[in-house]
Amino acid sequence: MRTVLVLVIMAALAFAHNETAARTTMAPAPETDSWLEEIGYFEVESYAGNVYSVGCGFDGEYLWVTNGAGQGGAGTGVFMLFEEDGTYVTSFPQNSAPGWGLRDLTCDGTYMYGSVSTRIDYYDITSREKVGAFYGPQNPNRALAYDGTYFYTGNFGTDVYRLTWNGVSGSTATSTLWSSAATSIYGAAWDELNQCMWTTSADYSGVVAQIDADGNLIENHTLISGGIYGGACMGTLNGKGNTLWIFEQGNPDAMHAYDVNPESLTRETWGAIKAVF
Questions:
Q1: What are 124-149's pLDDT values in tens digits?
Q2: Which runs of E-coded beta strand occur in 94-238?
Q3: CA 191 remoteness from chain centre
Q4: 265 domain-assigned
Q5: Residue 256 contacts residue 245 (beta carbons within 8 Å)
Q6: Under a CB-based contact definition with an 8 Å cutoff, are residues 15 and 7 in contact?
């Protein structure tokens, strides 16, 4: 009986650290990709003081990282702001977003949008105050990306939905199934220079899917062998025109930056992207 109790406690602790879909086995850890060069890293767990961070977004100057209210209120329910070199800037509240709080984030240059339950909240990036919310098709709308016209979302699985929002707070965006090429999707980032979307996985596969503008899979990349991810966003680390930032739900929770400038891609991968056009 004691052995069973210990196993139950261990399983609960494992779930508390990583917000993942229910799974009974861990996927095998494949080899990591070599062409996506990691150019930046910083841990966020010591700043959060807990293990309930999952989402990230970039406002053009700062990286926003979400920290949920946690299991039984153990988290802080705040945004944490960092410079791209990992320098901590400040924190401020998410307006009591429950549980894991806002998941993935995306920015349109004026507002930072964050997914929670069926709701997508948005904050003024200057005042950092919540301005409004609209509603999407998933519960919760975990992944979140914006391509300048459409929002995209998904919730653990393969499906990615394209959202058309009328800009009115309180309204519900119309949605269509855009792609089924993701892997256990948790985060998403629209890559304007490469005209593709990157989606992160939450199934211990370490897979980041690269999806073209028509919703077709270009390639699956393994950035962290056996890794489990949270949100994703695009940045400009070290003056690079195109940096893919990915949140790792690891030990510790951390942000990883990858060089995805078009000239940094292998001939084979860039050829696949160009073939889209």
A1: 999 999 999 999 999 989 999 999 99
A2: 105-107, 111-116, 119-124, 130-135, 143-146, 151-154, 160-164, 174-179, 185-191, 196-201, 207-212, 217-222, 229-235
A3: 13
A4: yes
A5: yes
A6: no
- 217-246 b/e (C-beta count within 10 Å ≥ 16 → b): bbbbbbbbeebbbbbbbbbebeebebbbbb
Diameter over CA atoms, the chain? 61
Strand arrangement, sheet containing 105-107? 105-107, 111-116, 119-124, 130-135
Helices (H) and strands (E) in the chain, counts: 3, 20
pLDDT in tens, 170-225: 999 999 999 999 999 999 999 999 999 999 999 999 999 999 999 999 999 999 99
Q: Which residues pair with 120 in a beta bridge?
A: 115, 134
Q: What distance in Å separates the CA atoms of residue 191 and residue 199, rounded to the nearest whole number?
A: 11
Closest to 189 in 3D by CA, of 63, 15, 88: 63
- On whether residue 80 sits in a domain, the answer given is yes
The helix or strand, by DSSP H or E, that contains position 9, with its residue range, turns out to be helix 2-17
Using an 8 Å Cβ cutoff, are 255 and 247 in contact?
Answer: yes
Give the CATH number, domain containing residue 230: 2.120.10.30
Range(s) of the domain holding residue 248: 38-276
Q: How many domains does the chain have?
A: 1
Decide if 29 is inside a domain. no
What is the distance of C-alpha 170 from the center of its chain?
24
Q: How many Å apart are CA 61 and CA 22, to the nearest integer?
A: 36
Please state the pTM of the whole predicted model.
0.86
